[in-house]
């Protein structure tokens, strides 16, 4: 069984679409294995997004992701990493297909509603960071 880390980012929480995102995940047949509402501290945010450290948008990304509560989830199921990324749509919500989470809700490449791990390797690292007590 594969697992992935999903975040409903502060913009998604602010817009009251937690229920819809979770419902789409469940409708697809994926399972929520862990879930927490929390506000990220700067250090955790920087570690989570460490591969983007050198990008020009990094400081603004850290400010955005720490700017309010988010929902962190471990989602599991058959090919969960790819399954959730397909539900989420492409990073830029304007390019994301209608019917996907980003395609239905977003206009902003930074405030793009959700995050999903981009590989099983990233998923393992990110799940450890958010849910260190999970086996
Ligand atoms: P996510 O899938 O969480 O991974 C990296 C995040 O960086 C991405 O979603 C966006 O929130 C953000 N991001 C990616 N590209 C840009 C960009 N060009 N400008 C601002 N933020 C970006």
From TrEMBL:
<dbReference type="GO" id="GO:0006241">
    <property type="term" value="P:CTP biosynthetic process"/>
</dbReference>
<dbReference type="InterPro" id="IPR036850">
    <property type="entry name" value="NDK-like_dom_sf"/>
</dbReference>
<dbReference type="InterPro" id="IPR034907">
    <property type="entry name" value="NDK-like_dom"/>
</dbReference>
<feature type="binding site">
    <location>
        <position position="85"/>
    </location>
    <ligand>
        <name>ATP</name>
    </ligand>
</feature>
<keyword id="KW-0808">Transferase</keyword>
<dbReference type="GO" id="GO:0005737">
    <property type="term" value="C:cytoplasm"/>
</dbReference>
<keyword id="KW-0547">Nucleotide-binding</keyword>
<keyword id="KW-0546">Nucleotide metabolism</keyword>
<keyword id="KW-0479">Metal-binding</keyword>
<dbReference type="InterPro" id="IPR001564">
    <property type="entry name" value="Nucleoside_diP_kinase"/>
</dbReference>
<keyword id="KW-0460">Magnesium</keyword>
<dbReference type="GO" id="GO:0046872">
    <property type="term" value="F:metal ion binding"/>
</dbReference>
<dbReference type="GO" id="GO:0005524">
    <property type="term" value="F:ATP binding"/>
</dbReference>
<comment type="function">
    <text>Major role in the synthesis of nucleoside triphosphates other than ATP. The ATP gamma phosphate is transferred to the NDP beta phosphate via a ping-pong mechanism, using a phosphorylated active-site intermediate.</text>
</comment>
<feature type="active site" description="Pros-phosphohistidine intermediate">
    <location>
        <position position="115"/>
    </location>
</feature>
<protein>
    <recommendedName>
        <fullName>Nucleoside diphosphate kinase</fullName>
        <ecNumber>2.7.4.6</ecNumber>
    </recommendedName>
</protein>
<feature type="binding site">
    <location>
        <position position="9"/>
    </location>
    <ligand>
        <name>ATP</name>
    </ligand>
</feature>
<keyword id="KW-0067">ATP-binding</keyword>
<dbReference type="GO" id="GO:0004550">
    <property type="term" value="F:nucleoside diphosphate kinase activity"/>
</dbReference>
<feature type="binding site">
    <location>
        <position position="91"/>
    </location>
    <ligand>
        <name>ATP</name>
    </ligand>
</feature>
<comment type="subunit">
    <text>Homotetramer.</text>
</comment>
<dbReference type="GO" id="GO:0006228">
    <property type="term" value="P:UTP biosynthetic process"/>
</dbReference>
<feature type="binding site">
    <location>
        <position position="57"/>
    </location>
    <ligand>
        <name>ATP</name>
    </ligand>
</feature>
<keyword id="KW-0963">Cytoplasm</keyword>
<dbReference type="GO" id="GO:0006183">
    <property type="term" value="P:GTP biosynthetic process"/>
</dbReference>
<feature type="binding site">
    <location>
        <position position="112"/>
    </location>
    <ligand>
        <name>ATP</name>
    </ligand>
</feature>
<feature type="binding site">
    <location>
        <position position="102"/>
    </location>
    <ligand>
        <name>ATP</name>
    </ligand>
</feature>
<comment type="similarity">
    <text>Belongs to the NDK family.</text>
</comment>
<dbReference type="Pfam" id="PF00334">
    <property type="entry name" value="NDK"/>
</dbReference>
<keyword id="KW-0418">Kinase</keyword>
<keyword id="KW-0597">Phosphoprotein</keyword>
């Amino acid at each position: 069984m594969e697992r992935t880390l999903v975040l409903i980012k502060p913009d998604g929480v602010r817009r009251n679409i937690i229920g819809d995102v979770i419902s789409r995940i469940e409708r697809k047949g994926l399972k929520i294995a862990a879930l927490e509402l929390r506000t990220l501290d700067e250090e955790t945010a920087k570690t989570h997004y460490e591969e983007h450290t050198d990008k020009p948008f990094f400081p603004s990304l850290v400010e955005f992701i720490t700017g309010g509560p988010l929902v962190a989830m471990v989602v599991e199921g058959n090919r969960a990493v790819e399954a959730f990324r397909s539900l989420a749509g492409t990073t830029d919500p304007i390019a994301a297909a209608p019917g996907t989470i980003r395609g239905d809700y977003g206009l902003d490449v930074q405030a793009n509603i959700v995050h999903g791990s981009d590989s099983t390797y990233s998923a393992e690292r990110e799940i450890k960071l958010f849910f260190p007590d999970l086996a």
